[in-house]
Design a protein that fits this description.
The chain has one domain: Ribonucleoside hydrolase-like (Inosine-uridine Nucleoside N-ribohydrolase, Chain A, Alpha-Beta Complex), CATH 3.90.245. It is α/β, with parallel strands linked by helices. Bound molecules: alpha-D-ribofuranose (RIB) and calcium ion (CA). The site of alpha-D-ribofuranose has 15 residues, from α1, α7 and α12.
Length: 323
């Protein structure tokens, strides 16, 4: 499929670990007329980078979007090996056991970090990077090209927890906890980052009635994502007491596209705990001024989205149904 040219489309690169909510984020981006998705790279996280690429290629084929290249990224994290992922959350194949047709395409010959550098060079000052998995590929790309941060327009990250508990340890969110060293390197680079942490994503839920609409659709992407949600609901029922799930990655996608009204979202200093103690992977956000509003913090370049004001779920369900 060739997209109609639209001056309002922004060039995007997506880095992901596909993943049920990653699949929803991909669908959301494909449905947007404000996004020109130039490439997707995968990283180990929910599943291996290789399996994530396979899932991504299969989903793109289902959506009729085999024009988007998919590159396999880092299998292991900067300092630790990939240890098998989150199959208890996302199922053995990462997409809730849903069997998609074997993709006809193979992954790109370049690696995901190489793809990031190439796209940033081809679109200087324009590329928006959206990262919804561990940040290993981005950290490797910074090593490949030390000037990368100045070439990229901005980076949006699903990850971290500012004022709420973690989801993988008491204080750490999974994407950051998988590779805290990569996260620290990415946060230290000079690009502008929007961090969409658990504070925002845990507030955005998709319900059984939404799942039923997706499954009842005649469209294959909606059907597939509806079916994936059954596995996600199996996991989240223990936290919410009903069949529902949170929308981590698609919410970050919508923030990146600019589709949502943001609640309190100060630009502050953020540090990542790279120790091997109980704080490992914590994102320490300097929110001391939250009661009176945040003054400018010298050198701060990370916007922390503590809440969104738009009711996101209907937007997302409609987007998926439109594919
Ligand atoms: O903590 C939530 C994040 O971890 C999401 O990106 C999910 O897909 C997993 O990667
Ligand atoms: Ca993810």
């Amino acid at each position: 499929m060739h997209l109609p040219d639209s001056p309002q489309r922004q060039p995007f690169y997506l880095d992901c670990d596909t993943g049920i909510d990653d699949a929803m984020a991909i669908a959301y981006l494909l449905a947007s007329d404000r996004v020109d998705l130039l490439g997707i790279g995968t990283v180990s996280g929910n599943i291996s980078a290789e399996m994530g690429a396979r899932n991504t290629l299969a989903l793109l084929e289902l959506a009729g979007r085999s024009d988007i290249p998919v590159a396999i990224g880092e299998h292991d994290f900067l300092a630790t090996p990939f240890a098998g992922g989150a199959i208890h959350v996302h199922g053995e194949n990462g997409i809730g056991g849903v069997v998609l047709a074997e993709p006809a395409r193979t992954p790109a010959s370049e690696s995901a970090p190489e793809m990031i550098v190439r796209l940033a060079r081809q679109h200087p000052g324009e590329l928006h990077i959206l990262a919804i998995g561990p940040l290993t590929n981005l950290a490797k790309a910074l090593l490949l090209h030390p000037g990368l941060a100045t070439l990229v327009k901005e980076v949006t990250i699903m990850g971290g927890a500012a004022l709420v508990p973690g989801n993988i340890t008491a204080v750490a969110e999974a994407n950051i906890h998988n590779d805290p060293d990569a996260a620290a390197a990415v946060f230290a680079a000079s690009w502008f980052i929007t961090m969409v942490p658990l504070d925002a994503t845990m507030q955005s839920l998709i319900e059984a009635v939404d799942r039923d609409r997706l499954v009842a659709s005649p469209r294959p992407v909606a059907q597939a994502i509806g079916a994936m949600l059954d596995t996600y609901f199996d996991f989240y029922v223990q936290f919410f007491g009903r069949r529902t799930s949170v929308l981590h990655d698609p919410l970050a996608a919508a923030v990146a596209v600019g589709d949502l009204g943001l609640g309190t979202s100060p630009v502050v200093q953020v540090q990542v705990d790279t120790s091997h103690g109980p704080g490992r992977g914590q994102t320490i956000c300097d929110l001391r001024w939250r009661f009176l509003g945040h003054p400018e913090q010298a050198g701060a370049h990370i916007r922390v989205v503590l809440a969104v004001e738009t009711d996101f779920t209907p937007l997302m369900v409609d987007a998926i149904l439109s594919l």
